[in-house]
Amino acid sequence: MPKRNPASTAIDSKLLKALCEIQAPSGHEITMKDFLLKYIAKEKKNWKHRPQVIVGDLLQNCILLKFGKPRTAIFAHMDTVGFTVRYSNQLVAIGSPDAETGTTLIGKDSLGEIECTLEYDHEHHAFYKFGRGLDRGTPLTYQVNFRETPTFIESPYLDNRLGVYNALKVAETLKDGVIAFSCWEEHGGGSVGYLAEYMFKKWQVRQALISDITWVTDGVEHGKGVVISLRDRNLPRREFVEKIISIATKRKIEHQLEVEGLGSSDGGELQRSHLPFDWCFVGAPEANAHTPHEKVHKADITSMTLLYEVLMKEL
């Protein structure tokens, strides 16, 4: 594989912005599924190797892209946090949104487009402020304000539209592997088990990379490279993680090591499954997680994609 400098690798901001703007909170991933299928149908002719696209009722709203003779899978969840309209003007959280009073929420119900305001009472219960009542069950998400500087990208829903973006970029050159676009990750999961079983039985795939976004913390910084997570709430098998670290080090790809006791991902579902999957969370760090102001350094995005390209070839 030709060497590339992560700092100079171009980011397709137009694609990333389009992904962030799609309203697809947990349980409502159909809009992201439709976007991805249209994108893949249009772009796959330009990819180095064309995948088999696997969809259908047995996969619900998930998508599998199978390239060549796969050994490793990439899991990228399509959903985001948000809110569901309850009764009167009450809201119930989807996942764990973290937004301040006055945040603009958008959606659509039987009476049309919605642009309302988020409010909280003294007990921190969430409500919406709008000129009419909204249909029960209507999903609401943050209004997207995509901001880009020479160094950073800031937007709602970089978690995990950036993980989806990364998977699409890797697909451009991928020869052997599976990409799984999963559902429900932000609200407890539920799709990864049957996706893993499908690829394990069909192709004997039993190792995975989790293409998701982690946190900037006291030990993980902006601009210091993609994060290889040694653990979060879950514990991946150390031999597999050390193999990934060895490849990143040998290839001189800038990276950081993370140790956390909280947080989870699609990797947690793999660990809890009955299948002998090895997995590792590999992703760029962001500030302001689950807020309308998620922020990621561009160099961390490019090192993420570069490491995935190498790992999918060498694992």
Task: Write a concise synopsis of the structure shown.
With about 325 residues, the chain is α+β, with helices and mostly antiparallel strands.
Structure, explained:
The chain contains seven helices and 19 strands. β7 (112-120) and β8 form a beta hairpin. The chain is an alpha+beta fold. The protein is globular and about 55 Å long. It has an eight-stranded mixed β-sheet with strand order 1-2-12-3-13-17-15-16, with helices on both faces. The protein starts with 12 loop residues before the first helix and ends with a helix. It folds into two domains: 6-80 and 147-314, Zn peptidases (Aminopeptidase, 3-Layer(aba) Sandwich); 83-142, Peptidase M42, domain 2 (Elongation Factor Tu (Ef-tu), domain 3, Beta Barrel). α3 (158-171) packs across α7 (298-314).
Spell out the CATH superfamily of the largest domain. Zn peptidases
> What's the structural domain tally?
2
Secondary structure tally, helices? 7
The N- to C-terminal Cα distance equals: 14 Å
In sequence order, what are the helices and strands, one letter per element?
HHEEEEEEEEEEEHEHEEEHEHEEEH
CATH architectural label of the largest domain: 3-Layer(aba) Sandwich
Low-confidence stretches: 1-8
Globally, the shape reads globular
The largest sheet, given as strand count, sense and whether it forms a barrel, is: 8 strands, mixed
Radius of gyration: 19 Å
State the total count of DSSP E strands. Answer: 19
The portion of residues forming beta strands comes to 25-35%
Which fold name fills CATH's third level, the topology of the largest domain?
Answer: Aminopeptidase
Helix amount, in percent?
25-40%
CATH class of the largest domain: Alpha Beta
Could you report the average pLDDT, rounded to the nearest whole number?
A: 95
| Strand neighbour order, sheet with most strands | 1-2-12-3-13-17-15-16
Structural category: alpha+beta
